Amino acid sequence: MKKLSLVGNLAMVLGLTILLVSCQKQQDAVATTTTATDAAVIKSVSGEGYSGKISSSDADEMAKTFKSKATSGSTEYVEFTIKDLQLYLASIQTKYKADKVYVNFAVYNQTNAPDPSLVGRQTVFFSGNNQSGTRNGDPRTGFGVRVMMDYMNHGNVYP
Fold it and tell me: Can you say how many angstroms the Cα of residue 134 is from the centroid of all Cα atoms in its chain?
């Protein structure tokens, strides 16, 4: 085995030192944790960080106004699971690069009602904007940029 010269030994020691120091810095960065502050947790849990948030009194007032103007047997709300909504949103973001969701109002008829008792009832369905550049569907539907193949309905209609 060949012996290293003094310069070679110094170079090897210097290289190992630099390697160990850089590994140590990286470990320090990974080991550093940030603690959640009360303010950050409250902001996250309270639902801040999105636009359109209204107070419960505004929601109550809007619901009362709707009920006072609605006909007997009108749909008051439609329920969807969070999981279904998240899966739908992920799907249209992936397929169509959608960055908007539309809540469309509709009425069930004999052809599309999931249950015969829902014929004539108001409902909603979701659609999104198609940013992918493809136009899957019939442009004569009146949806404009919303023309795509994936829509979501069949939540639970109440009452």
Answer: 22
Question: Residue 138 — φ and ψ, nearest 5°?
Answer: -100, 115
Give pLDDT tens digits for 76-134.
Answer: 889 999 999 999 999 999 988 888 888 888 899 999 999 999 999 999 988 888 877 66
Q: DSSP letters along 89-128, please?
A: HHHHHHHH----EEEEEEE--TTT-SSGGGTT-EEEEEEE
pTM score, whole prediction: 0.58
**Cα radius of gyration (the chain):** 29
What gap in Å lies between CA 130 and CA 143, rounded to an integer? 10
Q: How many domains does the chain have?
A: 1
Q: Which of 63-72, 124-133, 146-155 has the lowest mean pLDDT?
A: 146-155
Task: Please enumerate in sequence order all residues whose Cβ is within 8 A of that of 79, keeping only pairs 6 or more positions apart, or say none.
Answer: 155, 156, 158
**Domain interval for residue 84:** 75-159
